[in-house]
Amino acid sequence: MMRYLPHTAEDITAMLATVGANSLEDLFAAIPEGCRRKGEMDLPEPLTEWELNRHMEGLARENAVSPEFKIYMGAGSYDHFIPAIVPYLAGRSEVYTAYTPYQPEISQGTLQAIFEYQTLVCRLLGLEVANASMYDGASALAEALLMAIRINRRRRVAVSKAIHPLYRRVVETYFRPTGFEIVEIPYLKNGRTDLSAIAGSGELAAVAVQSPNFFGCIEELNAAEAAIHADPKTLFITAFSEPLAYGLLKSPGSMGADIACGEGQSFGIPRSFGGPGLGMFASRMQYVRNMPGRLIGQTRDVDGKRGYVLTLATREQHIRREKATSNICSNQGLCATMSVMYMASVGGTGIRELAALNRDKAEYLKNAFAQAGFSLPFTAPTFNEFVVKFPAGFDAIYRRLLEKKIVAGLPLAPYYPELSNHYLFCVTETSSREDLDQLVKEVRA
Fold this sequence. Notes:
Helix content: 25-40%
CATH architecture of the largest domain: 3-Layer(aba) Sandwich
CATH topology of the largest domain: Aspartate Aminotransferase, domain 2
Distance between the termini: 51 Å
Oligomer: single chain
């Protein structure tokens, strides 16, 4: 039988004597009696190591995970192939154990990796400066909106209803104690944001639009830029949950966005039941002093050798913490490193090819659903996600497919009550044509 607690009774007695306690209970004397557990915990009998392994395997079989399950659900977390070089390099001890560089200049390897990450994020998003990553796409959006408020000294922002609903929930959580106001922009029948609604919203610090949006629809960012910048003080924020889309689409910066932010999980990071990921964040250089998080820069030392430094770190832990731009005190260092490894190994050409493959496979399934007689309610172009409306009672078919290890999209009604019987489907390069044909066949049965 495997021991989990290595301390013997003699060890415990010696440690208690050192701290001047007579028993383990004495260690908890400061906790009120009413808050302390009485008696032993009701735990099952201990298991051997191999029994525990079987138990954990049984629990794991209750989860629907690929490749055993065919999963057509994206919604901010995407199943992509990861080059073998990424987990290999990320698993090396000098990378895997590296954390926040509190004494940054002695962490040259970590700083260089993050500098390279920032460089590739800027290229991907078409903006001039990127930070060392945020926690995730949701926190990145919330921080972008707060950044706009700091810049413009306005207390109201507008957020498209077609932005990921969980991102919007995080924004609401951030804003609830501040008194800042969030205006919701509705979406049109074609699945895109109704930009005409901005006109009557008063003075706005920023307007946030996601592209591709939660429905998978590609927003017209050039039209959004024109509508938003009709007021030159209002900042245009582009959010995203699938960065691979920018292998085909024009970058947010090239379309006039002032800030681009979103989730980078698609780049080399496993889904891992929803986390961790990383928040990509880039903006125009003129706003760099208001950016949250950290910024790594390149310089030269007194001998002219290249080196990396922590150029900006506007965090709450600094001595003037009341002036901090953010209370996020750490970047997702390992995830950012895995992301830059992915981008560097796949390259710009590879990202374009993968993006085209995702788009083409999603279009194949979308057309197959249409030919099978199912409704595609949104007519706007999509990337690798799209919405299908099924006849009433599809939930029974959905459950039947689960028994066959097929996850047929994400039901949208819990997030958008008006979209009853609507399901969001996602297709990436991991799905074969045979998989897609089988899905349509099962749905029609």
